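Entry:
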Amino acid sequence: MSAQSWFTPVAARLRTTRPYVVDTALAALVLFAASLQWLFPDEGDDPLSRVGWLLGAATAVPLVWRSRAPFVTACAVSVATPAQAVHHAPPPDVMYGGLVVLYTMAARGTPWQRRFMLVGWTIGVSVTMFHKEGAQPFEYAFQLLSVACAYALGMLARVQRAYTAELEDRARRLERERAADTARATAQERARIARDMHDILAHAVSLMVVQAEAGPVVVRSDPARAEAAFEAIAAAGRDAMSQLRRILGVLKEEQRNGTSPQPGVKALPVLVRKVRESTGLRVELRAAGEPRPLPPDTDIAVYRVIQEALTNTVKHAYASSATVELDWTEEALTLTVTDDGRGTAVPDGGHGLIGIRERAAACGGDARTGRGPDGGFRVVVRLPVGDRQAAPG
């Protein structure tokens, strides 16, 4: 086991331990280290006195409150350490308590507390060493370097803690943003699925209702026409089931396993023919300009918009004819569906017109609905094409 792999869990365990326990153990360790020179004095050292022992203990015992009152603890140790050095019974060889409080203040103190302690200890060590009898030059360097190292380690711990806190905060923000993006994407997908389901079912059911109402009227007088009506009902039902399977296949991620794509511009002639044959509504499809490739979403939107507009005409307009126009330009494709009905294709607040506007907006376009210039009802949708397609808002 490497030293790093051993130290990491130990450090993590210490961070989760109660500060009182850790600080008490640290104070005991500092007191033991400071007592070694008393237990094993060098030749010529001043003998240990009762006051000297109390002053030595005063440099360690306040560390018990290091986490709860760091500045007060630092002040207490800062007073006891030079007092012990002046007392000379015996003087401290290493300022263990002082190094701990310097580290603590650098890691946890406010800016003015950190500067106050650094300047105070630097001046205090210099003055103490100047008045120490027989002090060697290397002792100056050792004590001042000890102060600088303890302070630098504390600042490093502060920076590392701030960096870790920033990473954790950034991770939380990213998680919140990811959750918001997921919720937004889910809502958009649910709205898209709802539009598709509405368009498919509303169109199929409208055709089936029209034929179902006409069938009983001609079942005795014109059996062939009644049979055609029932066949149209079956065809509309099969078409609806086929399109629903396509949508469900996308939901189940089965499209790559052979599920056919949703209908687009190329399927419009088939749609117009089915409406004409199923309802008797005279529908004419016109195109102007040069067709251009469309993004997949726009291609599907063209089909669904025209499907919904014709469905509204069949259900609400009481029209005898309708015209579907595709106007291709380099910038956009304009869809216009006009009928000769009573001028109100759907009651206010209908889901169909709302779905048309939502589809247009999702593709970067816009939709307008209302009475036509010659009566009836008109739906006009403009959709950007090619590279000029605007991003959805």
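The longest strand covers residues 321-328.
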